Amino acid sequence: MVNYDSDYAIKHALAYMDGVFLPDATIVVEQGIITYVGKHDQKRVQHLKQYDAKGNLVGPGLVDMHIHGCGGFDSTRGDIQKNLEGMALFLAGKGITSFQLAVVMDLDLLDQIKEAMERSAFLSSYLLGVYLEGPFIAPEKKGGILSSAIRAFDREYLARILSIKSGKKPLVTSMTLAPELQGGEELSSILEQNNIVVAYGHSDC
């Protein structure tokens, strides 16, 4: 049985494969998986819904790993779910099909983002997680981060951050920290154990 959401063909595409551009290519997707890229084969696609790329480039979506807002949508205020969904739609229109939201330390905001993802399957399919800037950074190198969002390493506070989940994983997928701070090595180790990318920054090293 054909599922038209996951079984389709894109014809007249400028495809890119193995370092080579393929003009007037056909791309076949079956059960959500690309099964063929090459010359048009009517027998292969006749049972599928077909889209005409009209010679445009067809390729994988881009990923934005650090974004606070876009398209007039602010990720930190107002209706968080509406704004994040607006960001996702705006980015998709630019060829960006997933993003990691960058925020400054704010537990209430993290909870709101988590709740928005739980309510919206659409949003959770676009939002990879949160890139958290702080709170364990050097105060003298805070840049635009408010002093109230900075603190010394605190295991209990870190545990609270990690307790905010997206599914079974921490909502936070990356964190900026200053490695020279007391407890910095332990902090890095805990983050790595939780598959959170460690980014050294806002540091006085």
Chart the SSEs and their pairings.
Elements lengths: L7 E10 L2 E11 L2 E6 L3 H4 L3 E4 L4 E2 L3 E6 L1 E2 L2 E2 L5 H13 L3 E9 L2 H13 L1 H6 E7 L21 H8 L2 E2 L2 E2 L1 E6 L6 H10 L3 E4 L5
Keywords, separated by commas or semicolons:
205 residues; alpha/beta; TIM Barrel; 5-stranded parallel beta sheet; elongated
How would you portray this structure in words?
The chain is built from six helices and 14 strands. It is of the alpha/beta class and 205 residues long. The protein has two domains: 8-58; 62-200, Metal-dependent hydrolases (TIM Barrel). Strands 1, 2, 3, 4 and 5 form a five-stranded mixed β-sheet that branches. The longest helix is centred in the middle third of the chain and has 13 residues, at 80-92.
Largest sheet: 5 strands, mixed
- Elements, N to C (H/E): EEEHEEEEEHEHHEHEEEHE
Question: With helices defined by DSSP (H or I, 4 residues minimum), what is the helix count?
Answer: 6
CATH architecture assignment of the largest domain: Alpha-Beta Barrel
Find the structural class using helix and strand composition: alpha/beta
Distance between the termini: 60 Å
User: Rg to the nearest angstrom?
Assistant: 21 Å
Number of DSSP E strands: 14
